[in-house]
Amino acid sequence: MTTGTENLGLGANEAMRWERAMTELYTGFLHHGTEALESFDDEAVHQARVSSRKLLTLLSVLDPGHSSGLYAIFKQAQKRLGKVRDADVLIASFKERRTAAKRDGDKQTAKLVKAVIRHQKAERRRRRAKLADELPALINGKLKSQWEEFIEKRLPGLVSGTDANIAMRELEVAYEQQKKRCKEMFRQENPGSRKALDELHKLRISAKRIRYTANAAAFALDQKFHANEAMYKDIQSELGDITDKRVWLETMEDIGRKELDASRAAWNGFIESLQNELANALRRSTVIDVPDAE
């Protein structure tokens, strides 16, 4: 029979495990965030964003009402880091496209892609400036005192009322429900339509939540959930490829042909190639049976 004292011991041990996991992520966020501000190194930006995403995941499990105030701080940091990271990814991909166009002797496409890269580098400078303005205030403002108050005073009570396995099961149910909504949407809409792609993006977000919970809260989860990280990482990656191509198309449309000083032929050819890549990515989907885009 388990005594009350033993229960207190078990609770204290559980709180210590949560504290250890969250402190490691918090320390990583501060380290990579500071490094990102010093050089805007793309890997530092990425790791700071990942750390903030995992902290948001654990905070959502422990404190779904966000009573501590920490969620809003890390969410703002993730948003700013994410905008810089998205620009880094686009620029890197388009550099590869420019290299391929030059290799194929397609001078007009190479010129167009170079103009996109130049435009996005300017956009990245603006996003970096906002990150440099806002991240130090988040890191050096109330975060330290709020974090210490959370760990020392709030965490033990929150842990005692938390079951990460229940949270994970709820995430799995939400994923299956969103997957069902996607199937219904694809029966009604062209898979390449904004509505269909919006639902698919929501499915990706749902998969991401499961992946990060399986990773960040692995210490508190039953063995049956441990395979979720790898499984949903693959799902997230596949859906992310679709999202990337959609975002790149929308970015091109937002910039416009005239802004890039591109010929109509080069513009139409490049847009068509991106549309074909998106359609092919949709057809290759193993996550959901997507009809051929028209």
TrEMBL record:
<dbReference type="InterPro" id="IPR007899">
    <property type="entry name" value="CHAD_dom"/>
</dbReference>
<dbReference type="InterPro" id="IPR038186">
    <property type="entry name" value="CHAD_dom_sf"/>
</dbReference>
<protein>
    <submittedName>
        <fullName>CHAD domain-containing protein</fullName>
    </submittedName>
</protein>
<dbReference type="Pfam" id="PF05235">
    <property type="entry name" value="CHAD"/>
</dbReference>
<feature type="domain" description="CHAD">
    <location>
        <begin position="11"/>
        <end position="294"/>
    </location>
</feature>
